[in-house]
Amino acid sequence: MVEACSNFCFPVPEKLEGALVKLVPFLVASHAEAFCASSDDALFSFLPWGPFSSTEEFVSTVLGERINNNPSIALFAVIDKATGSLAGTIGLLDASPVHLCAEIGFVITLKSFQRTHVTSHAIGLLLHWMLDTPAQGGLGLRRAAWRANAFNERSVSAAKRMGFRMEGLMRWARVLPESRTEAEGARREGPREGDPKPRCLGGDSVILGLCWDDWEGGVREQVDKIMSRVI
Q: Nearest CA to 124 among 19, 217, 39?
């Protein structure tokens, strides 16, 4: 359990790098402890897992149970180049070489880097890798997807800013952990009588998409303009 990209269905570069941020495959030895030490409960408000009581629990739950040995998932560490510090995580999931699509996920920006350039630059680097053609250094995917809890306005706004379009609402899309008895982002009503997980609240998800024709039709330039800003 060393690298969270080693089994990915697409070739993974050693790094994806811009002027201010770089993405490198998430390594347990290099990144897990720093991520957990800088995390707080609020980071996991809209996620179906976390918070974690230890680095070992994070590694076991996220990497061991969800990512490792799953060829449709890749997880990157986001590094702020000015400080050399871990600024968060980002990744791909549900990646399909057959259908040339993938979803951006695991977008977690640590508190000290929130409301900075980090999130938009990390998303921009992934979008270039996903949607640029192989001749341009990308994978040539036709579709990038984004899924967010329906109450997570900051996530939806971040996606729209980077050119994603709203496509729909998935009701009862997530079963939240039992520990979230009053979870932010949960449906206000409980599950029906006889539900297999009666103590777990549910969440709705919104789906956004950014496709190759959007990218070629001006979104690439929109993203590059955002990434050209120093602050």
A: 19
Which of 23, 217, 32 shows the shortest CA–CA distance to 123?
23
Chain segment 116-161, per-residue pLDDT in tens:
999 999 999 999 999 999 999 999 999 999 999 998 999 999 999 9
Residue 11 lies in a domain: no
**Is 5 inside any structural domain?**
no
CA 176 – CA 46 distance, rounded (Å):
9
User: How distant, in Å, are the alpha carbons of 130, 131, 178, 206, 215 from that of 209?
Assistant: 13, 12, 30, 10, 11
Domain count, the chain: 1
Residue 1 has a pLDDT of 44
Inside any domain, residue 56:
yes
Q: How far apart are CA 3 and CA 76, in angstroms?
A: 9
4 within some domain: no
Q: Which domain holds residue 218?
A: 16-227
This prediction has a pTM of 0.92
Distance, in Å, from the CA atom of 169 to the CA atom of 152, rounded to the nearest integer, reads 13
Partner residues linked to 168 by β-bridges:
207
Sheet holding 16-17, edge to edge: 16-17, 21-25, 74-80, 85-96, 101-109, 143-149, 202-211, 165-175
